[in-house]
Amino acid sequence: MTTNGGSEPVIHRTPVFCTIVPPHILDHLAAHEDQALADSALRTLQHDSAQRTRRRVTAVRTATAVAGPAPATAQPRRTIYDAGHRTDLPGTEVRAEGTEPGRDATVNRAYAGLGATFDLYLKAYERDSIDGNGLPLNASVHYDVNYDNAFWNGDQMVFGDGDGEIFVDFTTSVDVIGHELTHGVTQYTANLEYYGQSGALNESVSDVFGSLIKQYSLGQTADQADWLIGEGLLAPGVHGVALRSMKAPGTAYDDTRLGKDPQPATMQHYVKTSRDNGGVHINSGIPNHAFYLLATALGGNAWERAGQIWYDVLTGGELRSQATFVDFAKLTVAAAKARYQAGEESEAALKVWAQVGVQAS
Hints:
With 361 residues, the chain is α+β, with helices and mostly antiparallel strands. Helix content is 41%, strand content 12%. The strands form four sheets. Strands 3-8-9-7-5-6 form a six-stranded mixed β-sheet, with helices on one face. A three-stranded antiparallel β-sheet has the order 1-2-4, with no helix packed on it. The radius of gyration is 19 Å and the shape is globular.
């Protein structure tokens, strides 16, 4: 920790390149006999691999003052750009904060999704934007040709239009937008290393708050929510409902082109692999399921008690960047006790982690 020339401390953060569609899905598509489908997936894989390498080699460490409570006047500062099916970012500005919707539905969905994310963090957790200090929210749409992904690159959101056969426009799911922007929140807080269990926690935290953003925007309680990540993203004809299911990991899709959802729900089926940064998009199913169990056990609005516990852990300063599932679980129990004393919240947290095979006591 250093200072910014005054008395306020500055924390240095290293951004990572994070995508909503995991490599194991694109790997499966790249091997498909349909050449056009395989080419789109391979192009996306090659792009994403290059971006990850560039991020590791040239990562500029992000600096931000420690966030305080959001001011009562906090408002989002959104700008949407059209990349024009190119890869030069950000592209041409097409909508700024406060302007009316235009004729491009993709632009309007991106604008609304950034707003929904800002609203959840501000109104539920008193956080002023992604960094807690009013960071402008920028996004580029219509990125590349048939690009099958969306990502946070450490500075802004980027959305592909999909290939139309497997994936549709990546602005269609507000939880996808919330997921990717939450990688930014993690970047500015716990800065979880993107490998192994800490990387799976990084992905899980984004799934958790992505789902909460969707639930908050729809006014859904925990028992009303679908607990799906990327619902509506799969094109007609694909045998599946979403990219991931927090309620039932491993059941989101089973398709000859996509393969079968490999996510485990418990440690009994934890996947050891060197692919995908140690299976960050696969083993995230375990903490995802723990959150789902806690939210439904406590009932009501999931962004309130369950979400508050997760947010307290993410922003509390005790979550180390190389945290394991056990580390995270213990901190959730401690956070529940700190905020709610000897109530049902801490007992429920202990119970749900035990259900997924993680020792939190």
